[in-house]
TrEMBL record:
Domain of life (superkingdom): Eukaryota
Pfam families assigned to the protein according to its UniProt record, in alphabetical order: Peptidase_M76
Gene name of the record: ATP23
Annotated region described as Disordered, given as residue ranges: 1-21
Biological role: Has a dual role in the assembly of mitochondrial ATPase.
Membrane topology recorded in Swiss-Prot or TrEMBL: Peripheral membrane protein
Protein name per the record: Mitochondrial inner membrane protease ATP23
Family named by the database record: Belongs to the peptidase M76 family.
The keyword Iron appears for this protein: no
GO CC terms, sorted: mitochondrial inner membrane
């Protein structure tokens, strides 16, 4: 009888122990991640990358469902014959120079290690979808600096990237007169300068200045600045 009474306890112990171990291991790794204790540099970097990737992907899915700007761009890309799916917006670690990118061969890259807020990721997604829209609708030649400059002007102007609050709080630029135009021009020049076909900053400035007025005022597919 004693051995019979012990069996249920043994079964209960064997069924809960893996769950207890799993919970403890999760707690241990969380503690190690926060403190750095018990993880090698490589393990720590791998864990950080995993967490950043998961957070970026979760935000991406939420924004696709709930962001008016993201949904608007996705709908207009579909209308233009270039539908975009979440799988075409890949979360990846990037270097320190950018928060996103667009390639007509690979789709949209979202730099998971450079987003500091949901709004930042939202603006980046809209920005890169503007490039996708321009490539789809206007057949942009990305080796042509003026073509590239026009798309950069439109993306910076329409994505929210140059909102006054973004400039003031995130970049520390406290200017009121023509703040939006100056931000759009500055950021477009930086992007064009990074084009492999751009020989110098001077050429990037020339390309942006040449197209700025017409491209800044072209708000398609939006009716006005987002």
């Amino acid at each position: 009888m004693a051995s019979t009474a012990a069996d249920p306890a043994q079964k209960a112990g064997s069924s809960t122990e893996p769950a207890d171990n799993k919970g403890f291991e999760k707690w241990r790794r969380t503690f190690a991640l926060i403190t750095g204790v018990g993880l090698s540099e490589e393990e720590f970097a791998t864990e950080v990358t995993r967490i950043q990737n998961r957070e970026c992907e979760l935000r991406r899915e939420k924004l696709i469902k709930s962001s008016p700007g993201v949904r608007f761009m996705m709908n207009n890309l579909a209308k233009a014959g270039c539908p975009v799916k979440s799988s075409m917006m890949e979360c990846v670690p990037c270097d320190a120079t950018k928060s996103g990118g667009f390639s007509n061969n690979h789709g949209i890259l979202l730099c998971q290690n450079h987003f500091y807020s949901k709004t930042h990721q939202e603006q980046t997604m809209i920005h890169e979808m503007m490039h996708m829209y321009d490539h789809c609708v206007f057949n942009v030649d990305w080796t042509n600096l003026r073509h590239h400059a026009c798309s950069e002007v439109r993306a910076a102007a329409l994505s929210g990237d140059c909102n006054w609050s973004r400039e003031f709080f995130d970049r520390g630029i406290r200017k009121f007169t023509k703040q939006h135009q100056e931000c759009v021009k500055r950021r477009a020049i930086i992007s064009v300068e990074a084009n492999g076909n751009c020989p110098s900053r001077r050429e990037a400035e020339k390309a942006v200045n040449a197209v700025f007025e017409s491209c800044y005022n072209d708000t398609r597919p939006f009716d006005e600045f987002y």
